[in-house]
Amino acid sequence: MTMTEESILGPRRYRNAEAMLASADPVWQAAAANGLIGVTVDSESNNRLTVRETGHEFANMVSCSYLGLNNHPAVLAGAVDALTEARGTSLVLSTTRIRHNLLVRMEEELGELFGANILPGASCTTLTAGILPLIASGHLDGTCQGGGGPRVMVFDRFCHFCMAYMKPICADESLVLTCPHNDLNYLEDICRKYPRVAYVADGAYSMGGTAALDGLLELQDRYGLFLYIDDSHSLSIAGERGEGYVRSRLEMNPLTVITASLGKAFGTSGGVAMLGNREQFEFLHRHAGPIGWSQNIPLPMVGASLASAAIHRSPELAELQGALARNIELFDELLPTTFAGNGLPVRRVDVGEAERAVKLSAQLFERGFYSSAVFFPIVPKGEAGLRLMLRADMDERLIREFAGHVKELTADL
Amino acid sequence: MTMTEESILGPRRYRNAEAMLASADPVWQAAAANGLIGVTVDSESNNRLTVRETGHEFANMVSCSYLGLNNHPAVLAGAVDALTEARGTSLVLSTTRIRHNLLVRMEEELGELFGANILPGASCTTLTAGILPLIASGHLDGTCQGGGGPRVMVFDRFCHFCMAYMKPICADESLVLTCPHNDLNYLEDICRKYPRVAYVADGAYSMGGTAALDGLLELQDRYGLFLYIDDSHSLSIAGERGEGYVRSRLEMNPLTVITASLGKAFGTSGGVAMLGNREQFEFLHRHAGPIGWSQNIPLPMVGASLASAAIHRSPELAELQGALARNIELFDELLPTTFAGNGLPVRRVDVGEAERAVKLSAQLFERGFYSSAVFFPIVPKGEAGLRLMLRADMDERLIREFAGHVKELTADL
């Protein structure tokens, strides 16, 4: 590196593309060379995708549509209904100013379903980008516009990229720290040292496992800890009304924000933030960056969400949750992994080295199952493996076959 | 502020929520008190929105659907076709790994239409969040994976929020500067001082006006200046095939990225980055953060985009562009503003103080026209005004009436 380059080089406090690419790109390239990246398909169902050019058929073992609602006829019909009613794809202006009644209806129905004030956004990333900096600056909670002073932002080391990505933005407003995964002692030390702290984490982690929720609620109770939790991987599948792992285990309050994607088990698109009161909704509606100036959920997908909400209110939800639970149980029985028994659908088969993960994924793909090789920076170095997700719309035979192949191919481990 | 608060306060180099809220929130509150914020409506067309509770009907004068394609029957039919073909809302997994053929077809068709490699994303914000840091780190251009060293990132002072918002993330990789609007001399000085520089700007600015493109291309030619331009406000309306203001005025090359929303004149949802070569597509597909781990465009909206692309290939595009041009001309004739004659649809009627802008907007709304009061931080302090956009689907009477009301209500200025 020349002197001029050095003089402009950033501090690389929260990211380092150079180091990340040096580690990760060769593995991505290897995955691509093994035909695992940039696969293009036609779809009949989540269990049957087809590569048009070769005719290769395979089951999607990494779809986050845990209840199969992305293929539900009523959800698709909901999208068509909204197009018919609204006669348009969108109003094409900021939802801060004008919202379509279909979107308002979605906010209300999801609000009732999940027991929270619902702020919709184009995606979870959009919501997180808009909300986190205003937690850091101290303006979301308490007196809102007054601000109670900045909050120390503690990010769980394993929290999803979409949150960790915003560290530098938060750091322009307040102190940003990274906490060992689920380390409540670390977190309590920070709470003792600083009067205002926020913790940023997943509810159900995208790579498996959950937040240490009981301990977090104790810290909230004792120190006024703010909790910002992305629970995208448990919405719809946990809770009597599909309110998710976290929401079903706490009371909403002004010191908790739960975000969740509607593009996973919920089966549609966009995301929602669950908020403790209406003032926070109004405040974020005005000031949370991309939530105001970016696109929001397009109207057909709002219609699909209304249809999915109707399913959530019906007995069908419990049936689908039950089918998923049985499939998870069966898989855990056939192939016990670290997260076995936690009732959530994300499973990881650890193989250690990235190359082995890529090879295993390629072998399974050849046999008709797409599961992802995951490696750094998706998981820590040396902890590469196979990531797969169970769904309600898999049948027993599929799960038995898949587990059998994995066992055979990892017999030496 | 207590000592502890001070000790955790961030440097506020690129943002300052405290100061922004102190200036802006009272005006937003005033706008809300005047019934201009959080309006909820049913829609018949862009010219006829209705507040259900009061029956108040009004024309949307701030829709960015400049060609009216958000209401085009063929675009709506395209969404339904995709649902029928794909039998699902999405594959619900990372598009880095598997893409639906409908999305691939959209990439190809838009690639042909716009003459570029097309990388789709859930929104322009998503694309910008993913791409800008890799320009800053120096990895997008040239040898890609090797990296040519970091680039000084020069953001135009008026560039859209969605880019300015990412300054702290870029600043973790490289030096970030803010340039006076369209100041080519400033930019050339930076190019002389540093070997690698990137400029971040709008093509057609969201608040009116355009980039100083000829001068920028000269600097690119002379110094290898990287150009990152968001041209959301001219896609579809400029260029023979709707390729936009910037793309129609330059040759694609590996030192230029143009992003554009599909959620404005194009009439659908999501965004695209136009890239100079396929290597950049593959590289960003693997590494550009939210483009890989976030949602992409849902399939019904991909279908809508395919239908919009078909319109772009037909003689209808020129007809719609012509209708828009005539409406812009008529408005400029009736009510000349700073940007009169530039052929673009965004107009601003300057009134100076924010309170006056809010009052004017409220008066016009009462008379059946929603145009936005814009004020700090949307525009600089003391430059508040009324923002409005012309569209192809407005008729002459509507424009004459609206201009007449504005003239009457601002006669004293």
Name a few traits of the molecule.
homodimer, 413 residues, alpha/beta, Aspartate Aminotransferase, domain 2, seven-stranded mixed sheet, four-stranded mixed sheet, 15 helices, 15 strands, 41% helix
Task: Write a structural description.
The structure is a homodimer of 413-residue chains. Chain A has three domains: 1-41, no CATH class; 73-312, 3-Layer(aba) Sandwich (Aspartate Aminotransferase, domain 2); 317-352 and 363-372 and 382-390, no CATH class. With 413 residues, chain A is an alpha/beta fold. Chain A has helices spanning 3-8, 17-33, 73-86, 101-114, 124-136, 161-164, 167-171, 184-193, 213-223, 278-287, 290-293, 299-313, 316-334, 354-366, 396-409, and strands at 39-45, 48-50, 57-60, 98-100, 117-121, 152-156, 176-179, 197-202, 226-230, 256-261, 271-275, 346-352, 369-370, 372-374, 384-389. The longest helix of chain A is centred in the C-terminal third of the chain and has 19 residues, at 316-334. In chain A, strands 5-11-10-9-8-6-7 form a seven-stranded mixed β-sheet, sandwiched between helices. A four-stranded mixed β-sheet of chain A has the order 1-2-3-13. In chain A, helix 4 (101-114) runs parallel beside helix 12 (299-313). At the A-B interface, helix 1, helix 2, strand 1, helix 3 and strand 4 of A face helix 1, helix 2, strand 1, helix 3 and strand 4 of B. Chains A, B: It catalyses: 6-carboxyhexanoyl-[ACP] + L-alanine + H(+) = (8S)-8-amino-7-oxononanoate + holo-[ACP] + CO2.
SSE sequence of chain A, one letter per element: HHEEEHEHEHEHHEHEHEEEHHHHEHEEEH
- Give the oligomeric state: homodimer
Radius of gyration of chain A: 22 Å
Number of strands of chain A: 15
The helix content of chain A, as a percent range, equals: 40-55%
Question: What is the terminal separation of chain A in angstroms?
Answer: 42 Å
CATH class of the largest domain in chain A: Alpha Beta
Enzyme class (chains A, B): transferase
Catalytic activity (chains A, B): 6-carboxyhexanoyl-[ACP] + L-alanine + H(+) = (8S)-8-amino-7-oxononanoate + holo-[ACP] + CO2
Domain Aminotransferase class I/classII large (chains A, B): 181-405
InterPro entries (chains A, B): Aminotransferase_I/II_large, AON_synthase_class-II, PyrdxlP-dep_Trfase, PyrdxlP-dep_Trfase_major, PyrdxlP-dep_Trfase_small
